[in-house]
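Our consortium's second objective concerns turning raw sequence data into structural hypotheses that experimental partners can test. To show how far this objective has progressed, the report includes one record in full. It was chosen at random from the queue rather than selected for favorable results. The single chain below, 107 residues long, was entered without modification.
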Amino acid sequence: MIINHRTYTVTPRRLGAYLKLVEELALPVMLRHGFELAGYYVTMHGPLNQVVHLWKYDSLADLERKRAARDADPSWADYLSRTEGMVQSQEDRILAPTAFSPDFGGR
């Protein structure tokens, strides 16, 4: 099992509109293609206008398969066009749990 940890920096004053589009357009597409949301957060301190989302996968192959299916979905292209220019930057990390991780590890 792995976690994909993504951080997006959203254009100031666009965070509310961005989150609405994620909830209404992106999330249904991703869930339809088997993505498992582990958490979706906004920053309250430190760098502002950021969203952090965590997605759970069985493996890198599982991540790649789900992304390919999502990317081929016309509804995903619609979401991307509607959010064009809202995300200023993004970071992507793949995390592996430790054996003692309470949420995702061996316990």
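The partners drew two points from this record. The radius of gyration is 15 Å. The chain has one domain: 2-95. Both points have been shared with the crystallography group to help prioritize constructs.
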